[in-house]
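As a representative case, we now present a protein record of this kind.
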Amino acid sequence: MHMPVTIIGAGLGGLTLARVLHVHGIPATVYEAESSPTERTQGGLLDIHDHDGQLALEAAGLTDEFHAIVLEGHQAMRVLDPDGTVLLDQADDGTGGRPEVHRGALRRVLLDSLPAGTVRWGHKVDSTRTLGAGRHEVTFADGGTVVTGLLVGADGAWSRVRPLLSTATPEYAGTSFVETYLFHADSRHPAAAKAVGGGMLIAPAPGREIFAHRESDDTLHAYIALSRSLEWFAAIDFTDAAAATARIAAEFDGWAPELTALITDADTAPVLRPHYALPTGHRWDRVPGVTLLGDAAHLQPPNGEGANLAMYDGSELGKALAAHPDDVEAALTEYEQAMFPRSAEPVTFEGGEVPGIDSEHNTARGLIDMITEKEHR
């Protein structure tokens, strides 16, 4: 392969692709809108799965570096009823297949594994267009352009590369997170800290859920999930932290105080995170010289698979290109034919299919039954 691969987006998927290409001696350039790797925080914890995310890191030759950033003990899981009854208290015995890492630390591992200059920071894409013969032009917000014979959109939900392949656009998925943080939890928020334990807490109910992770530095990071319309959330003034907190907490009236404390006792203002999705089974006809990976290809609401799938997409695309160095179209066809069905598979947790948030089975007992059924197979 003689031309460098042009990758739009320096998220985990795009960086994994760049790294796998580098391992195989294929040059790549990654264009990223952010001005530097430290422009913004990179979110919370990720559980990296042994059946996709870890395989991607293995293909990237970064298994040892990955293990070095794993947070020991954070695979522990507690499942609580809304009344605070603990139905499952599962310790991290080191045998689980979903070790937790900080997203920012994982991104740093990938960045550090690339040759200097691979990522071009401060390149926000304004538009893309087809030139013919498999070539495409990318125009950046500052007016600069680049022409490439192989363009990969790893630029997330609102991809500027996707229109080259598909008219699909993300639509609201019907659910949103409200994100909160509690700092110095053991000393300042002991009840919530005890409820969360050393790893992850899940407290599900039809139409609403509370998730929380214990992160490093004694921090609790909570995601309050609600199945409500965008109009419902728009009626809440999130610039008034106290009023917004009270309104969200009201949706959990009657829940145990150690759970609602993850809303009411937050040390940060609540942040709304609406969920968007592309159509289930989103796919496109083969267009020479361009493809997509991760959320640009198969955006779904948060389900624990997004980052893992993006990394796996990147590794599989990189391996396909390495296997067909003189036939880019064969590589892209092979990659897409495997990626389309993979990305449409039902979401599973601990081996069982996860019910939707509005399902009558979206309860603590339902989750326990799903896990128990898996363990007895």
